[in-house]
Structure of DHH family phosphoesterase:
Amino acid sequence: MRRLVLGCGAVGHDIVASLAGGPDELHVITDDRGRVTALREESVGAVEADPTDASTYPDHADMVVVADDSTSRNRTMAALARSRFPEAFILSYVGDDADRADREELADLSDRLVDPVGLVADRVLASSRGEPAERMWKLLRALRDVDGPLAVVAHDNPDPDAIASAIALVRLAEFADVEAEACYYGDISHQENRALVNLLDLDMRNLDPGMDPREEYDAFALVDHSRPGVNDSLPREIRPVVVVDHHPPRMPIEATFIDIRSDVGATSTLLADYLERFGLAPDEQVATALLYGIRVDTKDFTRETADADFDAAAFLLPQTDPEVLAKVESPSVSSDVLDTIARAIRNRETRGDATASCVGELSDRDALAQAADKLLDMDGVTTTLVYGFTDGTVYVSGRTRGTDLDLGETLRDALDQIGSAGGHADMAGAQVPLGILGEVEDETESMTEIVRDVIAGRFFETLADAPSAPTHDVDRIVTFPGEEDD
């Protein structure tokens, strides 16, 4: 049996790879010289010629695969193949830029049409029922309703989970034919986060808080946080089209599509689940970022980990770059980070099994999380809080382990009235405007004392009646306006 492949784009190459080595004769015609060379090295019969010229076709073909990336070329080749080989089975790929008319024409010329949108529909109907399928189509509908550029916004000073989730949602938006860009406010200053972005060459835009983003973007999506203007610098009146998060919300969320599932360890897990269910294999860049995001937020699968996190990791692992992961996990540590950790140890105040430490003026606020983790290693300490100030804001990072304390709710109760706070039961943070704490002279020591009195005082006072961590998923939200909530 002779199988003829006309054109050899990305889809065509995958088809050739699946057919190569079989018992049937395989013949490829493409004008891509590099592809011809590569196929010949794999012992595949390939000819460098114009696949839209019927004179280059062999005398006989039992099956014809039309597989260029261009829709117009595929229409031409399918018509020629049907005329030249009227008895052959013709399988045609719609191409990257097909509209409804293109699909109808190619369907008339072919015995079978390969259409990514149709394949997703088949996948949903065949393997996804109930809530997962409904989530997929709600998300796809919300994205396809976007008319113009979409900003996928991570929270301020994004961590690996937020970075990876933003990049992955951009990929899903592109699949829905929506122009999208991953964005953030603040800085990517933690050395591991910088290494992740640089080594994977991730494309993220640092937004200017002095500019109104609505001048450039028609719609907004939030990942790893859920409210505009809270842990990001977006205008509060913006109504996002998509919110995907794994942090339980303190207040009602307003968006076109909302997927908040606090029963998973990372937002990256949710994005990996969408990619898998849509049948979209992530490239090495996205897969590596998502896997690292899951590992960081679950502390290498030891903190708030669910079956879904392991499933996502298993899906992502074959596409990841282990060398990049190793380099990201072992970056050089700056002297500023070591100094912050040293000050946290030196200035700690312990009451019972809880420790709070003010490190004063900050040069690297991401060092707070590392210091909070380090203090948690101390004997007899189950809860830590490390805080400092810079650029008119007090930044707070907390950790807890081995208790039933809900640290996210505790910090909300302690600091939401004077700032913004939240997070998970065992990992949380807060930001408080420095000016709200009172006027002092321009002396760092005086400011440090006021910050210590307010933050530590509220923290230890709230601990006495602190809420317990939930024992089950209490915030599983998937909504789409106009329909009943899931």
